[in-house]
Structure formats: structure tokens, C-alpha cells
Amino acid sequence: MDDIDKAFSGIVTSASSAADQRNIIYTILSDKIICAASSVLLNVGDIVAVKSINSDDKPRIEEVEILGSATVRDIETALGKLPDMIDIEGNAARSLDRHKNAAYSKDMHNIIGELQKAARVFASAYLSGAHIVIRFHNDCDGISGAVSINRALSELSNRLMIGKPTVSWAMQRGIEYDMESAYSDIIEFRNHKSAAAPLLLITDFGTAPGSADQIINAEKQYTIVMLDHHPPYDEFPMERITNYVNSWNHGLNSSFTAGLLSSIFAEILADIDTSDMINASLIGDFSEYADRSDADGQKISIVLDYLTSIAGRNGSSIEKLTPSYADNLINNPDRLASTFYSASNTLNELLDLGVEKVKKMHGDAADVFLLDFSELPKSESGYPLPGRYSSRLQEKLEGINGPRTMLVLHYGSYITVRMPRAISGEVKLLEKINKILELSEYAESGGGHNEAASIKVVKERSGDVLSILLKELGCQNYHR
Ligand SMILES: [Mn+2]
């Protein structure tokens, strides 16, 4: 039992949802931020004096006196002071310095100001106890950013808080902030009460037509911070997002990955070193900044891709993947080694098979290799997913065939294309995909990067769309 005799007085700024009142977690802004359950029922806006806290494992306020209610102005003043508890400017400067020898160092200067603004908004919400949902894309890039942010939050709460606010993590399978996700967020936000608006952070997805309605609808209900590196299309309602940080808006491209953005964001929040996650993200997303000689980075990127592939599938050992689960695994040498061993074995076998089964054609800008993913034996774990498999196969095919190599892989209702940066400027894949979406009623949606993109098609008419795509790529010799 650890009783704090000093009385903390401050304003209650949030109350979490709980079936049992005794489990409601309150946030109280005093000299130190208290994040704890309470023996007495409190309300957001109460001014309280905390007399004693039991912090055996989870902190619980044992004795508290309600002194009155704060005015709107009092609350605004208290919330306004929160970002200043963090040295955002200093942390940003230290982050720039920490990575001064990295390939992306110069380009960090373009975007660090925007990340600082986003960090201020995020810090206000987090320290006030407003409910936060963090959605990350289900690949190495998405989860590496989530791991960095999770580390920053632990560090912040250790340094500034008694207790720790709960954040909801959600791994996203698609590239859209879809209706189902928004619906689930709204329900979750409604169950919590807070003085500051709840916040949704999205990393590595969302810049897609299927997100637009949900983004517009969210505007009055919750704050959105979005860290992305997918090229925005003309009508994307980015101005409706509280803080939209996209590499493309700052003279950078997809190589400045979401994992890199989110890791720098984490460093700005908590002055931590996230180099391991940055390296894994760059390798996992085939960024031009990637240091492919970094053996640990290679290993972690395969393992993170593996975990995000298998999590949540039927019979999977991981029901819901969180960044702390992933972080614990990669920091345990035995678990890291055995996970890497089984992932890389599966991957390498399927890559060898893929090289055997591809059909080679000649296109305008490159040799086009075509593969039906369903021709490969299905692995029970679900790893590798076709998207990341395509990227690895593309890399292998380039090694054999040279840089003028393109991969078209199809499976079910998806067609996915990969090519190196050396030819992507010439091919303009995203433009071609938009044209195909106009040309064929069987092409439903599409997007990604100019080096890696997918089209969702009507499953039964996949062949029709494939024909149009191959024709667009200049393959005259394709016959179904
Ligand atoms: Mn990415």
C-alpha cells in the first residue's frame, strides 16, 4: 500500500465507461495528472481534492472531497495548459538530431512542423483522458508506427501521470476508414465522458474514396489525426480532418512511410528513440530510404508482417493484435527467432513456387509477370497475405529479371500490381487504375501507390478487368 499524503486538488476531465461504477477510470488534472478509479462517484467538471490514492497495482482514489464545479473557462484553461507539459519543440529538435545521419534526415525537416502540430493536439486529448482510438493498417508499416506511439504513451504516463489512460487499438484490414469502423468508434466514444473531444488517430491507411463520408460525418463528433503516405486524390476531404499529415503534401512521396511519420510523431511526444521501428517500416514498405543491409530490421519487418497477417484469423493464436504484444515479442530473442524462422520458411517456399508459376509477357515499360495466387498452396496460418507476398515476389523477380519488371497478381476479387520506382513514373499506375475504374463496371474500387496498388473487382468478372489492365500495360500477347 502506497498512500500519497499530499492532497491533490484539480478538475475531473474524463470518466471512462464501466459496467461496475467502481471500475470507472477518472482523469483529474492537478499538479500531477491522476488517472484512477475512485471509491466515490465523480462527474466531469467536478473540482476535487484527492486525499489518498492506493496504488497497489491499478491506482484507486480512496479518499476524495468534491469541492465544487469548474466553470467552462476553468476547464478550458486547464486543458489549454496540457500540451505545455511536454517539450514538443525540444523533442522535435532532438529527434532531428538523433536521425541526422539517416537517409531520410534531410526530408524530415519538410514535415516535422506538421507533426509537431499534430502532436500538440494529440497530447491535449491524451493527457486530459479523452478517449482515444488508434487504428493502424495490418502490415509492417502500420504496426511499426503503432508500436512507436504505444511506447511514447507509456513513457508519457510514467513521467507525467499517476496511472495510465486506456487507449483502444484496432488493426485495420482494408485501406478505407469504412462505415463499420466509424460506427464502432462512435459507439465507443459515446460511452466515455470527457471535457475534451475524443480522438481517432489513423496510421497508414484512410486516404481513399471509401473514407470520405465517415471523415465528414466525424467532424463535429471527434478529432481526427491522420498520418499517411498514400497519395491523396483530388476530392479527398483532407481539410475536414483536424490534423492530416501526408508525405505527399510536403514535397515527399510514399517512401516517407507512415511508420516513419508515426515514429517521429512518437519521438516528438516523448523523446524516445524509435530507430528500430523506423528501419522495420522502411524495409517492410520497400522505401527508397530503407537500409536493406540491416539484418535486425529485415527480421523484424518479416515478423511484423507475419503477426499482422495471422492475427484475428480463425484458429489463430493471436485473437487481437496490439502493439504491446508485438513489442514484447520482438524484444524477446527466443520468441523473435522462432517466429522469424517459421515465417521466413513459409515465405521462401512460396516465393520459389511463385517464381516457377509466373507467366512472362512483354509490356510497354517492362516485362509483366502474371500470377494467379490461388494456384499456390494455401497456408493454414493465413501468412503471407497476397498483398505483401506480391511485394516480396516482385523483389525476387527484379533480382532475376532486372529493374524492368512488373508483377500482376490476382486472387478472388482483387488484382494487385507491383513495380520498382525506376519505372513507376513512366507507367503512372494510379492513373491507369482510375481509367480502368471508368472503363469497366466490374472494377469497383482501387488505390495504393504508383509502385504498389490494387483493384477490387467483381469476383466472377476478374478476367475481364485483368484483360483491360494488361492491355493498358501494353501486353499484346495476353489471351485468356
Ligand atoms: Mn504503408
In short, what is this structure?
The chain is of the alpha/beta class and 480 residues long. The protein has 3 domains: 8-70; 83-328, inorganic pyrophosphatase (n-terminal core); 358-472, Roll (Diaminopimelate Epimerase, Chain A, domain 1). Helices cover 42% and strands 21% of the residues.
Topology diagram in text:
Elements: E1 8-15, E2 26-29, E3 33-38, E4 46-54, E5 60-69, H1 72-81, H2 88-98, H3 105-128, E6 132-137, H4 140-160, E7 161-162, E8 167-172, H5 179-191, E9 193-194, E10 199-203, H6 212-218, E11 223-228, E12 243-246, H7 258-270, H8 275-284, H9 295-310, H10 323-330, H11 333-357, E13 359-362, E14 367-372, H12 386-401, E15 405-411, E16 414-418, H13 421-427, H14 429-439, E17 443-448, E18 452-457, H15 462-472
Helix pairs in contact: 2-3, 2-7, 3-7, 4-7, 4-8, 4-9, 4-10, 7-8, 8-9, 9-11, 11-12, 14-15
Bound molecules: manganese (II) ion.
What key phrases describe this protein's structure?
single chain, alpha/beta, inorganic pyrophosphatase (n-terminal core), Diaminopimelate Epimerase, Chain A, domain 1, 3 domains, six-stranded mixed β-sheet, five-stranded mixed β-barrel, 18 strands, elongated, binds manganese (II) ion
Structural class: alpha/beta
What would the CATH topology of the largest domain be?
Answer: inorganic pyrophosphatase (n-terminal core)
Molecules bound to protein = manganese (II) ion
**What is the residue-averaged pLDDT?**
94
The termini sit apart by 74 Å
Poorly predicted spans: 1-5
What percent of residues adopt helix (DSSP H or I)?
Answer: 40-55%
- The shape, in one word, is elongated
How many helix segments?
15
> What is the number of domains?
3
Q: What share of the residues does DSSP label as strand, in percent?
A: 15-25%
How many DSSP-defined strands? 18
Largest sheet: 6 strands, mixed
Strand ordering within the main sheet:
13-14-15-16-18-17
Instruction: Give the radius of gyration.
Output: 24 Å
Any idea what the CATH architecture of the largest domain is? Alpha-Beta Complex
